[in-house]
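A common beginner's mistake is to predict each chain separately and then try to dock the pieces by hand. The better habit, illustrated here, is to supply every component at once so that their relative placement is modeled jointly.
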Amino acid sequence: MPILTYREALNQALREEMRADPDVFLIGEEVAEYQGAYKVSEGLLAEFGARRVIDTPISEEAIAGAGVGAAMAGLKPVVEMMTVNFSLLALDQIVNHAAKYYYMSGGQYNVPMVMRAPTGVGLQLGAQHSQNFESWFVHVPGLKVVLPATPADAKGLLKSAIRDPDPVIFLEHELIYLSKGEVPAEDYAVPLGVADVKREGADVTIITYSRMTLFALKAAERLAERGISAEVVDLRTLRPLDIDTVVESVRKTHRAVVCEEDWPMCGMAAEVIAQIQTEAFDDLDAPILRVSGVDVPMPYAKNLEKMAVPGEEDVYQACLRVTEGHRD
Amino acid sequence: MYRKMVLIRRFEEMAGKQYMQASIGGFCHLYIGQEAVAVGIISALRPDDYVMGTYREHGQILAVGSDPKAIMAELFGRETGISRGKGGSMHLFDRERNFMGGDGIVGGGLPIATGVGLAIRYRGGDQVCVCFFGDGAVNEGAFHEALNMAALWKLPVIFVCENNLYGMGTQVTRASAVPDLNRRVSGYGMESAHVDGMDLLAIRALSDDVVAECRAGRGPWFIEAKTYRYRGHSMADPATYRTKDEVEEWRVRDPISIYEKQLLGAGLITDEEIRGISAEIDAVVDESVKFAEESPFPQADALYDHVYASGE
Ligand SMILES: Cc1ncc(C[n+]2csc(CCOP(=O)(O)OP(=O)(O)O)c2C)c(N)n1
Ligand SMILES: [Mg+2]
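With all components supplied together, the output reads:
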């Protein structure tokens, strides 16, 4: 299988969907001539022209709204927010409009748009540019929310997102654009709403998504050296949430650690934990642990930032704690 | 004013150098080329006036008179930084001098400046608030909402658009249906002017008038200063979207050289004094780096400080 970066895989997905469907177009700040702030749209202007790869003024609300309107009028817009931080200026269009029209119109108007954005912590980008908002979007009925961790998933999920008849929030972790992985050469799509067991194990289930999946896999390798067998479930889509795959795994391992880079308060991990305990309380041998970002705005100073961002070690330690006293 | 402009230029050159050596991280947007705008306007203010900056604010906060040592230490992410290492390049604050940030969201400062204007009026003061933003910010909804509100309530706010012709890689003509920004604000019924952003004395003269008007209750005002950033948008941007010739054309109209010639022509400064100032400022900048390098990183506890003013 060819090895691609996460960024190349996303680029391929956009390219292939735009080739396949003339109604698919890309719109956002610096997506065309600049080739994307994170270069995801490299080469697309050259192939598809300015009609389908559209640079905009710095006007997030109008960009998102233009996506909603174009989708209602029958097109399939892919709206790029330069980063998820700036999507906050577009929240009204996303939450009050994109997420609501199908319901409010009694099924007359669906909104088949994708809002893509780099997300997550950066490197010393400070409090306004180093954030996660997936739990805000996940909160909203009517939205679908996708956060791929690998190049193969990035490509396959973006293709499904573009083909989906509903508004999809598609968040790409900005620190893994250059990470590499095998990507099938043939045409494929990864369905929305299906979690993926990225590693099988017997003693503890690590449930996570996005960049934390990569840390979980590394932690699992280290745990294996200590005789602890960890299963890693990558949620991939946060809404709709594939709780069945999670519960099935927890029934097998009897222990769970849920990891997110996001803040803990009302976060995705809290939701997953609530659902596990409802579905699988009797199967649990230990309280479910959670690994989250530290509950403060992101500091700039390097040493403080390092403390604030959860990583492999945090996942590893949580797994040790939850499996303490466990005998195979 | 000459000193301030040279200080900003040298400070920024040093910041660029330190960034390349990885002493400074994150996003770093240099002010080189735009010095006359901040210095011309801010020198017309009183110490009790307010300034709202952008993420390209090193020059703005230096113009206000903040300590270069504390600013450099902030860029280095040290405890002695002007925002205690918590903010970084985009988030410089100096409450003592009413410098209110340091905001990384395009257009985010305009409604806040309107609020500062409201507070000034509320308390019956005669201060003004100067709000800097770029040509890209005029396309945000916040720009229009803030301008209308400030005009409606006649608030003492001076909205200063630093039109450096580009918002990242996008030229104004590709982003604004009406590229003449004065025309765009005319609909709000506020006074406006445009000025050559490379001509310090022109900016200062206009600012004296505008500040007096706003103090007298005849605000708000909109000023468009046409200027140019010599470097890329940030340290990460190679700026391939503009030609070498274009950059050179602007460099010929360098704000510091222009003012230097004016001072020399008027006999207000000698070549020797210029050399003296240059050496003095190099020493100030070097000292700021030394200070930053020798300063400790923030203590681990600082991670949890300043989330709530109540201390919870
Ligand atoms: C709301 C928002 N959208 C997008 C960005 C990303 N961004 C940072 S600076 C910038 C360009 C701004 O250009 P301009 O207002 O002309 O200011 P300049 O950088 O030229 O000083 C963009 C798009 C942001 N910081 N905030
Ligand atoms: Mg600009």
